[in-house]
Write a structure and sequence with these properties.
Helix content: 40-55%
Distance between the termini: 16 Å
Number of strands: 3
Radius of gyration: 17 Å
Oligomer: single chain
Largest sheet: 3 strands, antiparallel
Order of helices and strands: HHHHHEEHEH
Number of domains: 1
Number of helices: 7
């Protein structure tokens, strides 16, 4: 499969941002806390452009969705690093596939630490599930933990639609 490269403007549109909100993509990439990057090349000065690959767009879309849930940038960065370390390319695979993905959820199970700073050092488990019962099973195996269940199926559906429209119009 040939790699597609996307400009900042295309990346912002595909992940669901309005044109005037493209600064969010820049912030995701420039902020060390998120750990996101432009794999296809980074801007090297005034007038230069960053280009993004599909993997980058998947991570950017997930970061945006997690930010919308109220998670902090350091936590979002840790989640994305954990998914990378597990080589969990589920989101990218689903974007490429034609399967049913409406029920996809990201489960984040975190150990509460009362009185300690809310940073990325907190113990957490991150994985994908397609049913609430799968999430409940994980939670019951990890008692006394907080669970964040993030439905990403609708976000993924919109992402796929905008990606297809962008690819056709190129």
């Amino acid at each position: 499969m040939d790699k597609n490269f996307f400009t900042l403007e295309q990346a912002a549109r595909i992940i669901g941002l309005k044109p005037k909100e493209k600064w969010r993509v820049i912030k995701f990439v420039q902020s060390k806390e998120y750990g996101l990057k432009s794999s296809a090349g980074s801007a090297a000065g005034s007038g230069s452009r960053r280009y993004y690959e599909l993997d980058d767009l998947c991570e950017l879309a997930l970061a945006l969705r997690l930010l919308e849930t109220g998670l902090r940038s350091m936590v979002i960065g840790k989640i994305i690093r954990q998914l990378r370390e597990k080589n969990d390319t589920t989101l990218n695979a689903l974007v490429r596939a034609q399967g049913k993905d409406a029920d996809l959820r990201l489960v984040i199970i975190r150990k509460p630490e009362v009185g300690k700073p809310l940073d990325e050092k907190r113990e957490q488990i991150v994985c994908w599930v397609s049913t609430v019962s799968e999430a409940e099973k994980l939670w019951s195996a990890n008692p006394a933990r907080d669970v964040i269940l993030v439905p990403v199926g609708q976000m993924l559906s919109g992402f796929k639609h905008r990606l297809a429209a962008s690819t056709v119009s190129r």
